[in-house]
Amino acid sequence: MDGEESIAMSLIKDSESNSAMRNPQEFKYDNERSFLITNDDKEKSNGSSKTLANSYRSLLAISEDSKEYPNTQDINRSHYMENTTTWLTTLVHVIKGNIGIGALSLPFAMMNSGIVVGPVLLLVTASIAVHCMHLLVQCNHTFLNRTKSLNLGYAQIAEMSIALYYPKARHLGSMIVNILLVITQLGFCCVYFIFVSESLKQIFDDTIQLDVRIWIAILILPTVLLSFIRTLKLLAVISMVSNILYFSGVFCILIYAGDNMQSPETLPKFTGLATVPLAYGAIVFSLEGIGVILPLENVMASPRHFRCVLSIGMGVVVLVYLLLSILGFSSCGMHCLGSFTLNLPNTPYYAAVKGTLAIAIFFTYFIQFYVPMTIIIPSVQEKLDQKYSSLADYGIRTFFVCVTAVLAICVPLLGDMISLVGAVGCTALEIIFPAVIHILTFSYDNSLCTSSLIKNIILIVFGFLGAVSGLYASIIDMIWNIQHPGVPQGAVLFNSSHVSL
Fold first, then answer.
1. For the range 88-93, what are the long-range contacts, defined as Cβ-Cβ under 8 Å and sequence gap of 24 or more?
2. How far is CA 358 from CA 354, 362, 393, 406, in A?
3. Are 485 and 213 in contact (CB under 8 A)?
4. What CATH class has 87-479?
């Protein structure tokens, strides 16, 4: 399963209760609320409207009684849940959950930053992203201990962090996170439309010369029909097929990149500040794995080991990204397209590679699409009569498939769309929100030291600057590419300024 696909499947599982209890003697599991409770707790909550599940005001008081409960980092979840994972299984999922279509855009990121500045920017951004993942895990365990839960989701943690200060406004946390998830997932779907259409155009250009917009329009009907799939078992089969196809294709393009490397000395070390935000957006897009972190941590049998597993897994991911970005840029130079696959030669063999990856990404669309539908459809159906429930389901799915297709038709520029989605949606979920949640969580009981507060503020400022500059640069580059098709702005700016280190 590639990166965004793993995120989607994990978000789906995270939104559905998959924690069956084995009823140990000392604790019981409240399946409805995902809470560990004792018999004493039940006696205290009987007849009372304020329970452990909804009394945010008593979170600190609950944490003070933590000796009665196991620490969530020390707990063995296999005693309380079924289908828990080992550290090795979790490590594999962390790696797979962070390597997706964004990895194919990294040579494009290097072209917009330089052979020296690009890898440095990748390492810095990846380090920040991994650190923010650790911040979110730390907040997760804090709230798990305070509420005696076995697992919590990203939106729940955001809600609880706000509830510490403004209980009546707590829904804003989950609402904002869910809105960003919907926007980001639908943004992924737009990227997939463009990727598949660009690939089909290149494959069939010798026989059928159609504009990429026409290919997107052709894909709408089959995409709408397949979007009606609502069975997770069938989606899991689709996921497995796309997984095999994706990694087979990536292996082939790595071989091509290695065989066609240029000397790094012929490449610009720094292409200029104007296009660095484009590189940042593409890099953040490729690192958008924070959505998979909590679902994976929540089913790990020994959560104490998760931080080590996360660090090792992300270290492997960053090494793969460095290899792919440097090899890809070295083989294509200042002519990198939005996806490295679009730079492959038009031979039958590489046409098959492009087709393989196009099929893999097309299948991945429906995994990504499932996530926003689980958020949007129920909220609409609860406002309608039961007899209109199915009609609303199909209507909403059709509408949003068409929305993603129309957006892709309006902006059929793969690299710019990746940078745009990465700079705005991914930056917010991956950098800004974890830092904000960390401040809210640990400032409540004065356990946040000054250095951590300053560091989190720096992360928030970095995220905002990256989002704003990435949005601006993406729009400017879109305008440039519409006015000068086939001429990368980064190459022109570099040739005119000859910036080097």
1. 90/296, 90/297, 90/300, 90/306, 90/309, 90/313, 91/309, 91/312, 91/313, 93/6, 93/10, 93/292, 93/296
2. 6, 6, 27, 19
3. no
4. mainly alpha
In the chain, count of helices (H) and strands (E)? 20, 2
Query: Cα(37)–Cα(51) distance, rounded to whole angstroms?
Result: 10
User: 103, 250 in Cβ contact below 8 A?
Assistant: yes
Q: Token digits for 425? A: 């949606």
- For residues 93 and 153, give the distance between their C-alpha atoms in angstroms, rounded to a whole number: 17
Q: What dihedral angle (degrees, nearest 10) is formed by the CA atoms of 353, 355, 356, 359? A: 160
Nearest to 438 by CA among 422, 417, 420, 455: 455
3-state secondary structure 447-495: CCCHHHHHHHHHHHHHHHHHHHHHHHHHHHHHHHHHHCCCCCHHHHHHH
Calpha distance 348→107 (Å, rounded)? 23
User: Other CB atoms closer than 10 Å to residue 124's CB: what's the count?
Assistant: 13
Gyration radius from the chain CA atoms: 23
Return the bridge partners of 149, or none: 35
Mean pLDDT in order along the chain per 10 residues (501 residues): 57 46 36 39 42 37 46 69 80 81 90 93 95 93 83 90 90 91 89 93 89 94 90 76 87 90 86 88 86 82 87 92 92 87 90 92 86 88 86 94 94 83 89 95 88 95 93 85 64 46 39
Q: What CA–CA distance (Å, rounded) separates 244 from 199?
A: 18
Tell me how far apart the 2 most distant CA atoms of the chain are, in Å: 76
3-state SS class at 171: helix
CA distance 202 to 344: 10
